[in-house]
Design a protein that fits this description.
The protein has 106 residues and is of the alpha+beta class. It contains 4 helices and 5 strands, in the order E-E-H-E-H-H-E-E-H. It folds into 2 domains: 46 residues; 50 residues, Multidrug-efflux Transporter Regulator, Chain: A, Domain 2.
């Protein structure tokens, strides 16, 4: 026997989606658990790949500086940047490395 049940989507602002059921509560629970795990992994992958390169404004916000201060760091070659097509972009990893190297003991 199959039926239909309503499922609350985490990403959809609480919208209910109709889902098929197997009529077996244990199997349905397992399918829901697998679906939730896949969903969480997709969200995590999106966060990891959320754009490797940042523009100056976003990069400055990321490291807690003003865009002007970040441009000074770039000019002093304290932080590497990518210059392409008239744009200046910064790599997340380079910003993370700069933060790590800027830490003092304590």
């Amino acid at each position: 026997m199959t039926g239909e049940r309503r499922h609350k989507s985490n990403a959809g602002g609480g919208d209910s989606l109709p889902l098929s059921t197997t009529g077996n509560q244990g199997l349905d629970a397992l399918a829901d658990a697998i679906a939730e795990r896949v969903f969480q992994r997709l969200i995590a992958a999106q966060e990891r790949n959320k754009g490797r390169l940042l523009d100056v404004r976003a990069a400055a916000e990321y490291i807690g500086r003003t865009p002007t201060a970040l441009r000074h760091l770039i000019a002093k070659q304290a932080i590497p940047c990518v210059r392409r097509d008239g744009r200046v972009q910064l790599d997340h990893q380079d910003l993370d490395n700069w933060v790590e190297l800027s830490k003092t003991g304590g």
